[in-house]
């Protein structure tokens, strides 16, 4: 629940600021700090807890899309499997996804965003 409130805070902040990134219209250090965390939450949260960033957070999704399109993020973003392996030894049995263990497979990278109906 507190994670969802943090998503809402970021979304509201981005709406209020009206900028492309958190500190303005250019990517800065703060984006390089926040965006990888959002990516880890997105990938590991979905895998271990079936947690999704709510689609109604349009400003947050637009922000993530802009970050996904930067060369810096594309070249530094780990594969989904690497993110999951990072948490594999740290995830307690009580939150471990039942029957899910990251296995050797073709690397994937989640860089898509939900399609929004702009008539809302």
Automatic annotation (TrEMBL):
Domain of life: Eukaryota
MF-aspect GO terms: chloride channel activity
Gene3D superfamilies per UniProt: 1.20.1050.10
Entry GO CC: apical plasma membrane; cytoplasm
SUPFAM superfamilies named in the record: GST C-terminal domain-like
Ranges in a coiled coil: none
Protein name: Chloride intracellular channel
Record organism: Rotaria socialis
